[in-house]
Amino acid sequence: MMRWSLSRHAAVVLLLSALSVAIVAAALWLLLGAPRLHVAGPLKPSDVYDGIKIALAIVAGAGGVVALVVGYRRQHLNELSEQREHGKAFTDRFGAAADQLGADQPAARMAGAYAMARLADEWRQERQTCIDVLCGYLRMPHTPDPPADEPAFAAWQREREIRKTVLRLIAAHLRDDSSESWQGYDLDLSGAVLDEAYFRGARFTGGDIIFANALFVGHGRDQVVFDEVEFAGGSRVYFRLAEFRSGSVRFDRAVFSGGWVSFDSARFTGARTNFRDATFSAGEVRFEDAEFSDGVVDFAGSTFSGTVMDFGEHRLQSLHTTIPPARFTGGTVDFSRTATFTHPPRFGLRTAPEGLLLPPGTGICDLP
């Protein structure tokens, strides 16, 4: 109706009002037993006055209806104007934050990261867009190893701090105690260099969380931490083609209670990756075509009670293709100290490769 002219809008409302009055009058007449109207001779002056009063009441009612229509349209236009102004303010803030993220000065980029995160909290309609911008910043090229000369090292260290701040902002919004939760939104960190990422206590409850082709590195005591993270039903987490090169990557006390986590074609080439005391109770965790050529993958104290964990060959019937099994060419994958092994991983191997350690008394032939 807001697209109609004022006269058309008022006419339609008047007709609807008249129809409503006629329906109510007819209902009352029927409820009263459909009494007959009696004409008692010529009209008296009092009858004329009553008729005039009725006519004036009808005119006043029609005027009131028109006034309500005008007021409603004015209110609607004011609300639309406020919404436009509100949206324009958010758009301006988005542009300013994006400009800061692209600034040359490290302090401006740091401020831009905080401004974009705050805007994501307040602008729910475009929250995913704001998150995409933060993730896009982390996907920008970054050298994983520090340069040798001092000026370049200082610039590298400043950029590293900004990227760590962006990761902390994202992780903080994935915890249950966050005032504004980003759980359930998509995170695309494909190809990002992740150095000292701290996701402790985060919950992945939905959406696509993409670490595909990401590079996990650590320097000294710096670590990539997924401790106490929960991979719940509805989440899809991709570590496909990711490389765990150096430092420590921890999934200690992580809970795999649903969803789908893929390490397909991931490369464990030097990092120590811990799944200590992790709980695998539901969902799927896949390591097909993963390469273990160096480093250690430790499952000490973990509980395997329901999750489908697959290191073996996987055939996709719909595509008539086969994903090869994991390759053990070096390093160590240690299941020897697991707490519960009632639902063991699938390897599809006849002989245990060197570096694959199973619980005492468990042979590779005992596994699926």
Could you describe the 3D structure shown?
This protein is α/β, with parallel strands linked by helices. The chain is built from 5 helices and 22 strands. The strands form 3 sheets. Strands 1, 3, 4, 7, 8, 11, 13, 15, 16 and 21 form a 10-stranded parallel beta sheet that branches. Strands 2, 5, 6, 9, 10, 12, 14, 19, 20 and 22 form a 10-stranded parallel beta sheet that branches. Helix 2 packs antiparallel against helix 3. The longest helix has about 55 residues, at about 45-100. The relative contact order is 0.06. The model has no long low-confidence stretch (mean pLDDT about 85).
Layout of helices and strands, plus pairs?
Elements: H1 6-31, H2 45-101, H3 106-122, H4 127-139, H5 150-172, E1 187-188, E2 193-195, E3 203-204, E4 207-210, E5 215-217, E6 223-225, E7 230-231, E8 235-238, E9 243-244, E10 248-250, E11 255-262, E12 267-274, E13 279-286, E14 291-298, E15 303-304, E16 308-310, E17 314-316, E18 321-323, E19 327-328, E20 332-334, E21 340-341, E22 356-357
Parallel strand pairs: 1-4, 2-5, 3-7, 4-8, 5-9, 6-10, 7-11, 8-11, 9-12, 10-12, 11-13, 12-14, 13-15, 13-16, 14-19, 14-20, 15-21, 20-22
Antiparallel strand pairs: 17-18
**SSE string:** HHHHHEEEEEEEEEEEEEEEEEEEEEE
Give me the secondary-structure category.
Answer: alpha/beta
Largest sheet: 10 strands, parallel
Strand residue content: 15-25%
Write down the Rg: 34 Å
> So how many helices?
5
Uncertain residue segments: none
**How much is the average pLDDT?**
85
How many strand segments?
22
Question: What's this model, at a glance?
Answer:
With 368 residues, the chain is α/β, with parallel strands linked by helices. 37% of the residues lie in helices and 22% in strands.
